[in-house]
Amino acid sequence: MHVIYGGTFDPIHHGHLRLALEIADALSVTKVHLVPCHIPPHRGSTGASSEQRLELIRMAIEDEPRLRVDDRELRRAGASYTADTLRQLRQELGPDEPLVMVVGTDAFAAFDRWREWADMPGLAHIVVVKRPGADLPVGSEAARLVRERRADGPEALSSAPCGAVLELDPPLLDISATGIRQRIADGRSPRYLTPDSVWQRIQALGLYGACPAGNF
Ligand code: ATP
């Protein structure tokens, strides 16, 4: 089973990292692949560049063999669409290997605005992680998909290559990249919200308004 977990990771933090391991445990897989997405240029001025986000992810997962980074969306020119990524992976994995996409309810709520969203269940299973305060709107396409394609448990994902939706409710850390960027911009430390190596590198690069000479 091939499991991908996408996001902007601007920057990666312990909330992302814990979730990735919770998923590995819940699905009994030995690897979860983090897939950073391309950020449109108009967002770039406040965040980190693609290369910088990728570097921070690499540092964060360096000593964790269960976490991998897949930089295919950053290598593709222009905007990256999840459907293209799933299609590419499906080609690489062949028709029978289960492919799983992990997404939080905050992102999944607007699923029907993703490009070619209707094709996705034909390419992958979807694991929807419940995030506090981000319920799927009643009557939304996302809620309908969960209802109609609900998997009873993680085992169901191994028995087909795609098409099921599994809801998971693992323990989550209340951390957001927005909160980290805000703290740094305010001159406060985000220590313990993200690995020390990541925070050190953010400072060295002066990202998000960090002072390059700053301490923890
Ligand atoms: P931002 O604050 O910039 O929106 P974020 O911290 O929410 O960023 P993203 O990169 O947008 O992170 O999120 C990627 C994926 O990780 C999404 O599916 C999101 O639901 C999930 N996620 C983000 N933060 C957490 C967390 N603390 N615990 C579990 N999942 C999270």
TrEMBL record:
Keyword Nucleotidyltransferase carried by entry: yes
Protein encoded by which gene: nadD
Pathway info: Cofactor biosynthesis; NAD(+) biosynthesis; deamido-NAD(+) from nicotinate D-ribonucleotide: step 1/1
Protein family according to the UniProt entry: Belongs to the NadD family.
Domain called Cytidyltransferase-like: residue spans: 4-183
Name of the protein: Probable nicotinate-nucleotide adenylyltransferase
Higher taxonomy: Bacteria, Pseudomonadati, Pseudomonadota, Gammaproteobacteria, Pseudomonadales
GO terms (BP aspect): NAD+ biosynthetic process
Entry EC number(s): 2.7.7.18
NCBIfam families: cyt_tran_rel, nicotinate (nicotinamide) nucleotide adenylyltransferase, PRK00071.1-1, PRK00071.1-3
GO molecular function: ATP binding; nicotinate-nucleotide adenylyltransferase activity
Reactions it catalyzes: nicotinate beta-D-ribonucleotide + ATP + H(+) = deamido-NAD(+) + diphosphate
Segment forming the signal sequence: none
Role noted for this protein: Catalyzes the reversible adenylation of nicotinate mononucleotide (NaMN) to nicotinic acid adenine dinucleotide (NaAD).
